[in-house]
Amino acid sequence: MTTAATCVIAVQAAQRSLAQVTFQVDRVYTSGQFFNEYVRFLAARTAPANRPSRRRSPGTDLGLHGQAVDAPRGGPVGLMR
């Protein structure tokens, strides 16, 4: 009888340990996935081919048709109608 009780306690302890290890491995895997996505995001942001051009082609405008710009010296810039 004592051997059976010892076996039950050992199996329960093993189950708890296995559940804990499984949880930790899942956390490590998930963190790795987030880290990989973050690294890919940074690589895409710093890749020269993906950078938008800062030069506008001739003839393009900013699309402020019918708007006036009020820019007092030293103050904030605001759009007025």
What does this protein look like?
The protein has 81 residues and is mostly helical. The chain has a domain at 20-48. The protein has one helix and two strands, in the order αββ. It has one helix spanning 2-46; strands spanning 68-70, 78-80. Strands 1-2 form a two-stranded antiparallel sheet. The longest helix has 45 residues, at 2-46. The protein is rod-shaped and about 90 Å long. The N and C termini lie far apart (90 Å).
Sum up the structure in keywords.
81 residues; mainly alpha; two-stranded antiparallel sheet; 1 helix; 2 strands; 7% strand
SSE order and pairing:
Elements: H1 2-46, E1 68-70, E2 78-80
Antiparallel strand pairs: 1-2
Order of helices and strands: HEE
Largest sheet data: 2 strands, antiparallel
Poorly predicted sequence stretches spanning 5 or more consecutive residues: none
The counted number of beta strands is 2
Report the portion of residues in β strands: 5-15%
**Shape call:** rod-shaped
Structural class by SSE content:
mainly alpha
Count every helix, treating DSSP H or I runs of 4 or more residues as helices: 1
Radius of gyration: 31 Å
**Looking at the chains present, what oligomeric state does this protein adopt?**
single chain
The mean pLDDT is: 78
Question: Portion of residues in helices?
Answer: 55-70%
How far is it from the N-terminal to the C-terminal residue, by CA? 90 Å
Strand order of the largest sheet: 1-2
